Amino acid sequence: MSITKLFNDDLKVVNIGSPSFKKDYEQQNIEYIHLEWSPPASGNLKMLHLINLLRPKMNIINEANQRVVEKIKAAEARLIALRPAYEMIPNMTKNTILHAGPPIEFKKMAGPMRGAIIGALIYEGLAHDEKEALKLAESGDIIFDSAHHHDAVGPMAGIISASMPVHVLYNIKNRNYSYCTVNEGLGKVLRYGANSIEVLKRLKWIEKTFMPIMNQALHLSGGIDVKSIISQALHMGDECHNRNKASTALFLREIASHILSTSYDNESKIECINFIKNNEHYFLNLSMPYAKLALDSARNTKYSTVVVAMSRNGVDFGIQLAHSNDWYTAPANQVKGLMFPGFVEEDAAPDIGDSAITETCGIGGFAMGGSPAIVQFVGGVVKQAFDYSKSMHEITVGKHQVFTLPPIDFMPTALGIEITKVIETGILPIINTGMAHRLAGIGQVGAGLVNPPMECFEKALIDFTKKMKEEME
Questions:
Q1: Which of 214, 224, 283, 360 could pair covalently with 82 via S-S, beta carbons 3.0-4.6 A apart?
Q2: Residue 473 above 70 pLDDT?
Q3: What is the mean pLDDT of residues 19-31?
Q4: b/e string for 345-366 if b means 16 or more Cβ within 10 A?
């Protein structure tokens, strides 16, 4: 075809990649087709080189990843007790305080976490007031550690101190345990850094009244099947991270008769039932340890590139792989979404909390397509919720057939975040979450969506490739 003839014919335009040219076509009334495309790994030659180095070993890696996914899916969690943290959590002492996210020194902690620690020290009787608690926290006499290092998780600041009651979950398949505190409800609560008298009084009620009644009720129940509740709740509009209306109601249905059958006085038993009934987020502190329990059952799987923990401490975001227990961290992102009246985005602390463990297990943000109402809480439109759930299958290696999403033709949730897929596609895991005020004591200021930093996955790939090379030589 001659050049002259080419330019006399009508143009058939395909715009590949960058959308910046589309406006020019539209202004000139030129029809075009836009093809979404970006170079693999966003053109990062170092990452592409590392992925190519792994290609010859992909059969080994894929087999390991499938073993990880099968272990996660096989987990069967039973809530069996509610007991003090120091009695149940491994290596917990009276001077230990566990927190959300990867390890961090007290002096580097975000405001909400510092505020929650001050409250915990007063709650434990280790300090009489904020000034004394701050001095103790800075003294070096308190052991601070990631809850993940102790088979535990906690929402937002995630603070667990010795006397705090923790849910005890047991995996009847893998015989491992996980732990999580009791959800205090909304408003000014310890997990958002509040430490007022009202907050501490509620924590003491949970310890002195709620815990003994619930523990006896759980003993009478023979254990509550948490996985089954999650499966049912996903069919009732929950995603089991920021929306727990159905799951909390289902849990209350399971436990209520056992609470009434305990040996305690009726007034206290009714208080316990009402505490759960009036706290729609109660089940969050059960879905989180379920996810922790399931994911931990797949740890120490050699050659696996699947993520078994995503967590943030308000300063750093960290991930861990099934292959090892190392943390790969980068600065936490800001959450984007809906602010509560009277607050602006600048008021919010960076992303914080262990609750991204739900997304790591394929629920939460990964299951938003089954929870259209969640967009009213975190922002966006229903179609986005569907799209997020579908797109997560592009960065995972499996599907959780027990967890399905009715609005998307009962599509199973995506399971097994795989680092090379994240890096190659440029698609980051989606997390829906609450926002804490950057200062201690103010509480929740909004909710929205956030992604992990890509740097976490890049660091993980660099280290994994290095270890793989050493082990295969």
A1: 214
A2: no
A3: 68
A4: eebbbbbbbbbbbbbbbbbbbb
- Distance separating alpha carbons of residues 196 and 119, to the nearest angstrom: 8
Question: Buried b / exposed e across 215-235, counting CB within 10 Å, b at 16+?
Answer: bbbbeebebbebbebbbebbe
Cβ–Cβ < 8 Å for 239, 367? yes
pTM more than 0.85: yes
When pLDDT is averaged across residues 136-161 and rounded to a whole number, the result is 97
For 146, the 3-state DSSP assignment is strand
Higher-pLDDT residue of 330, 384: 330
* Full strand arrangement of the beta sheet holding 143-146: 143-146, 96-99, 160-161
- Return the amino acid letter for 144: F
The dihedral of CA 122, 128, 129, 132: what is its sign? negative
Domain ranges of the chain: 3-37, 43-71+299-472, 76-290
To which H or E segment does residue 307 belong? strand 307-313
Q: Percent of the chain at pLDDT above 90? A: 82
Q: Label the pairing between strands 160-161 and 152-153.
A: unpaired
Residue 33 has pLDDT above 80, yes or no: no
Arithmetic mean of pLDDT over the chain: 93
Q: Which amino acid makes up residue 294? A: A
Q: Which fold has domain 43-71+299-472?
A: v583 fold (3.90.1700)
Query: What band does 209 get if pLDDT is binned at 50, 70 and 90?
Result: very high
**Predicted pLDDT at 256:** 98
| Beta-carbon count within 10 A of 35 CB | 9
Could you tell me which CATH number the domain at 76-290 has?
3.90.1710.10
Taking the alpha carbons of 284, 287, 291, 297 in that order, is the dihedral positive or negative? positive
The length of the chain is: 473
